[in-house]
Amino acid sequence: MDGDPRPIGVFDSGMGGLTVLRAMEARLPAERFVYLGDTARLPYGTKSAETVQAYALQATRLLIEAGVKMVVIACNTASAVALDALKGALAPVPVIGVIEPGARACVAATRNNRIAVIATEGTVKGGAYVRAIGALSPDAIVVQRPCQVFVALAEEGWTDTTVTIAAAHHYLGALFDGPDAPDTLVLGCTHFPVLAATLRLIIGERVALVDSAATTASAVAKALAESGMASGERKSGGARFFATDSPERFARVGAIFLGRPIDVASVELVDLRPKESPSF
């Protein structure tokens, strides 16, 4: 059968990238996926660019060893600081990040040209969304907010607790007050979509909420079609999971992000750390 049956590799610092996998499974049901969550070393958002680049390279090399045909960086921090390095290191395997698709979606959504981006500290410091949005719409006014606590809340499955609501008020309350408030909010971390209902309580219904998961899935579908790498299968593809710590917790909490149960037996524990020579 025509097509490329090899799986698509998906990488994130933890479980937030499962929201991207969820969107890709819906958009590309015939494709197979290999997902790697570097749960032993999250969060990436507070680490240096050099450290994130090193971690991302270790993780994506494992995906290459698993025989993937494409790598999706389902982590905004890694996309912000490591995408170019990964494209060079993994060539000729295509590498797609989440920032450019998200930037395109928010530029299309805004009506008053005022856009807010919430993300990790690393993504905000790197300014990748500001650059990507500015390249598409030079007149856009972009406001960024680092919301690191949201990552921990999402990883704990605290999607609608009083603590989560209080954190949302703290981060976003003043930002969306007044006539010049942004009319578009970009969820610049793949952990954040599971908090969308709580964020709506703060920003209201009129603000466009941009989740890069769906737009990344569209970008992957386009890249597969243009390169002739789409699967020729007509049956459901399925997914294989790797985690660098606690497969049990990955399966339990990951189900919140993926929107379906994850069998813990399908989660393989891996060690990405470079092998050191024994000392005597």
Overview of the structural elements:
It is a single chain. The chain is an alpha/beta fold. It folds into two domains: 146 residues, Rossmann fold (3-Layer(aba) Sandwich); 113 residues, Rossmann fold. The protein is 44% helix and 17% strand. The chain contains eleven helices and ten strands. Helix 2 packs across helix 3 and helix 4 packs across helix 10.
Give me the secondary-structure topology.
Elements (H helix, E strand, L loop, with lengths): L7 E5 L5 H10 L4 E6 L11 H17 L4 E4 L2 H15 L4 E3 L1 H11 L4 E6 L1 H6 L1 H9 L4 E6 L1 H8 L6 H11 L11 E4 L8 H8 L4 E4 H16 L10 E6 L3 H12 L8 E3 L11
Parallel strand pairs: 1-2, 1-3, 2-9, 3-4, 5-6, 5-7, 7-8, 9-10
Helix pairs in contact: 1-10, 2-3, 4-6, 4-10, 8-9
Average pLDDT confidence is: 93
What ranges have pLDDT less than 50 throughout 5 or more consecutive residues? Answer: none
Structural class, by secondary structure, is alpha/beta
What is the element string, with H for helices and E for strands? EHEHEHEHEHHEHHEHEHEHE
Summarize the structure.
By secondary structure, the chain is an alpha/beta fold. Helices cover 44% and strands 17% of the residues.
For this entry, give a set of tags.
six-stranded parallel beta sheet; 2 domains; 280 residues; alpha/beta; Rossmann fold; globular; 10 strands
